[in-house]
Recover the amino acids of this structure.
C-alpha cells in the first residue's frame, strides 16, 4: 500500500510539473545601453520624454535601488546573464569571452524547462568583440565563442530597424507550444549621440543639469542629445510591447526592462558613482497583475536578475549563483532584502592602458543609506569614457587651464589624483558631492562598509589589495 501511495504521489508531482511547464511564462529582457536610473521619467525626471517606460512602470514594479555589478557593458552583462559577480565568472577584462563552464539563464531555461532561447539586437558582448588578428586566432583555435552553441537564436544588429526585425524573426521562430526567453538589446542611448534623433528634440536651454555638471552651451547640447536618444529608445520599447500584444503574448510574458550600465556622462559610465552603477529596472508580471506595489526601495543587484527569472519559470536556481532572487517581491510576498550590493571596475575597451578610461581598478559597496568607493588606482586622474574626444570635453579642458571653470566643478574632473576612498550619504547627498571619509560622525559607517567589501572581495577571490590591511606589528 505504501509503495502504491508513493507511486501515486510521484505521478502526481510529475503531472504537476508538466502542468507547470505548460503554463511557464515567456521571458523578455529588454536592455538599453548606457542608461542611468536618473534618466527616466518615472524615476522623477520631469525633463525627459519617456511615456512608454512611464506607462510600463504603472503596469509593473519600478525598482528604486537597482545597482549593476559593473559600470561597463561586458562585465555587467556577464553578471546579469550568470547571476554571479564579474569576478566570480572571470569577466573583469572587457573583451574576455564568457567561459563555457558558466551557464547563462536562457541556456538553463532551454536545458531544464524546454524554452526556446535567444539573444538579439545590439551585441550581447560575451563572445569577445573588435578583435586584433592575433586575438581572433586564439578564439578560433580554442573555440571560445560559445553562445551559438548555448542558445537557439543568436543574432546581433546595429540599426533600430534591424533590431526590431530580429525581434519579430525570433517570435516567428518560436515553436508552437514552447515558452520562450529572449534578451533583446538596443543601442540607444550609447554614444555617438545623434542630432535630431526624435522629431521634437529636447531643448538644451530648459534642462535641469545635475549639480556636478559644468554649465556650458556644448554640455547642454550634449545632454539634450542624450535625452533624445533615450526618448527614441522609449519609442522602440513601445513597439516591442505592442508586438507582444498584437501576437497575444502579453498575458503570459514576464517583461523586464533594465539599463546595462550607467550613462556615458559626467561621473557616469566607467565610474562607480551613481550615474555609473545606479540603473533603471522595471518588471511587469504576466497578466499585468493588479494590486502590485508600484515601486520598491530594496537594494537589487544585477546578479539578482538571473535567479529571479529562473524562479519565475519554476526552475531551480543553481547553488553557484550568488545573486538573490526577488521573485517573492513580484508576488507580493515577504522578502528579506539585501544588506549590500557590490560593483567592480576593470579594463574598458580594447586600447592599451593610456588613462583611467582604458584601465582602472575600483570596487564599491552600497548599503541602504551609504556608498563606499575604493579607488585602487587612486593615483590616476579622472578620464571620461566615450567622450574624451568630443569638443565639449576639449572646451572644458581649456576652460580649466584658463581658470574659467568653477572650482567646485573642476575638483571632480581635473585634480591630478583621486581619493583612495570615497564615502557618501546617498539619502542626503544623492549627487555624491561631499566625501565623508575621515569625518568623526561616519567612522562606524566606514568600518562597516569596508568590512563588508573585504568579505566580498575575499569570497570572490579578488586580485585587488583588500581595503583593510593588517595592523602593522609593533617593534619589540
Amino acid at each position: 500500500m505504501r509503495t502504491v501511495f508513493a507511486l501515486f504521489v510521484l505521478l502526481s508531482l510529475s503531472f504537476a510539473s508538466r502542468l507547470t511547464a505548460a503554463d511557464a511564462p515567456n521571458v523578455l529582457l529588454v536592455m538599453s545601453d548606457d542608461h542611468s536610473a536618473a534618466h527616466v521619467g518615472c524615476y522623477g525626471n520631469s525633463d525627459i520624454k519617456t511615456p512608454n517606460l512611464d506607462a510600463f512602470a504603472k503596469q509593473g514594479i519600478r525598482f528604486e535601488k537597482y545597482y549593476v555589478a559593473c559600470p561597463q557593458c561586458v562585465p555587467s552583462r556577464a553578471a546579469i546573464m550568470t547571476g554571479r559577480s564579474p569576478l566570480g565568472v572571470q569577466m573583469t577584462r572587457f573583451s574576455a569571452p564568457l567561459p563555457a563552464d558558466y551557464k547563462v539563464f536562457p541556456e538553463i531555461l532551454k536545458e531544464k524547462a524546454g524554452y526556446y532561447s535567444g539573444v538579439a539586437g545590439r551585441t550581447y558582448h560575451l563572445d569577445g568583440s573588435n578583435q586584433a588578428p592575433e586575438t581572433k586566432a586564439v578564439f578560433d583555435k580554442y573555440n571560445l565563442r560559445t553562445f551559438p552553441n548555448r542558445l537557439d537564436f543568436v543574432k546581433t544588429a546595429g540599426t533600430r530597424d534591424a533590431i526590431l526585425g530580429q525581434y519579430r524573426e525570433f517570435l516567428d521562430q518560436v515553436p508552437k507550444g514552447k515558452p520562450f526567453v529572449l534578451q533583446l538589446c538596443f543601442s540607444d542611448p550609447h554614444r555617438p549621440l545623434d542630432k535630431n534623433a526624435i522629431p521634437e528634440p529636447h531643448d538644451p536651454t530648459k534642462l535641469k543639469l545635475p549639480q556636478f555638471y559644468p554649465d556650458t552651451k556644448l554640455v547642454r547640447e550634449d545632454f539634450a542629445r542624450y535625452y533624445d536618444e533615450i526618448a527614441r529608445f522609449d519609442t522602440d520599447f513601445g513597439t516591442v510591447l505592442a508586438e507582444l500584444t498584437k501576437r497575444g503574448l502579453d498575458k503570459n510574458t514576464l517583461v523586464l526592462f533594465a539599463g546595462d550600465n550607467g550613462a556615458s556622462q559626467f561621473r557616469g559610465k566607467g565610474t562607480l558613482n551613481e550615474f555609473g552603477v545606479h540603473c533603471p529596472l522595471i518588471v511587469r508580471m504576466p497578466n499585468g497583475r493588479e494590486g502590485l506595489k508600484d515601486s520598491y526601495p530594496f537594494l537589487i543587484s544585477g546578479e539578482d536578475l538571473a535567479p529571479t527569472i529562473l524562479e519565475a519559470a519554476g526552475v531551480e536556481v543553481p547553488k553557484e549563483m550568488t545573486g538573490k532572487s526577488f521573485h517573492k517581491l513580484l508576488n507580493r510576498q515577504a522578502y528579506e532584502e539585501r544588506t549590500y550590493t557590490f560593483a567592480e571596475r576593470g579594463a574598458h575597451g580594447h586600447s592599451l592602458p593610456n588613462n583611467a578610461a582604458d584601465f582602472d581598478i575600483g570596487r564599491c559597496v552600497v548599503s541602504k543609506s551609504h556608498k563606499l568607493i575604493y579607488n585602487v588606482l587612486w593615483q590616476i586622474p579622472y578620464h571620461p569614457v566615450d567622450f574624451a574626444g568630443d569638443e565639449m570635453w576639449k572646451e572644458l579642458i581649456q576652460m580649466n587651464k584658463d581658470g574659467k571653470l568653477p572650482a567646485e566643478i573642476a575638483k571632480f574632473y581635473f585634480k591630478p589624483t583621486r581619493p583612495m576612498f570615497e564615502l557618501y550619504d546617498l539619502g542626503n547627498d544623492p549627487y555624491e558631492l561631499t566625501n565623508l571619509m575621515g569625518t568623526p560622525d561616519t567612522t562606524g559607517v566606514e568600518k562597516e562598509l569596508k568590512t563588508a567589501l573585504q568579505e566580498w572581495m575575499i569570497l570572490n577571490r579578488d586580485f585587488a589589495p583588500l581595503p583593510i590591511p593588517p595592523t602593522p606589528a609593533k617593534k619589540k
Observations:
- The radius of gyration is 23 Å.
